[in-house]
What does this fold into?
Amino acid sequence: MPRYGKVVVIKRNGTDGIIFPLTSTSCLFGRKTECDIRMRLPWVSNEHCKIDINENKEAVLTNLSTVNPTQLNGACFEQPVPLKHGDVLTIIDRSFRFEYPLQSTPIKRRSRSAKDETLQQVAEVELLHKQTSGAKSLDAS
It folds into this structure.
């Protein structure tokens, strides 16, 4: 099952609470029982906001509430917004932090072309030749 990131509940005291892994391409917040993250507060809309994962595996936050708009990092927004790692979304007085998953692939090294490999080998042979001929001339004197 792919993991697209996670949503971390931020408790009122500022510590991390429950973690919701994002394993599907959509996560709906709201009061309805069908919501992925359900908030049973009367001022939360039935469908308050959602996070969608687009074709580039980027998370995009969309506000669905006109009465009590969702905030992103303390500001209201009207159009869908791409989320960055660590962004905080707030619904009424409840806050959540979005986190992308840790990269599990190692950092790729730049590979050398065949030409670069050949030039490197030639340079090593020339250096070795200079070192050995220099050593012979020192021995001769």
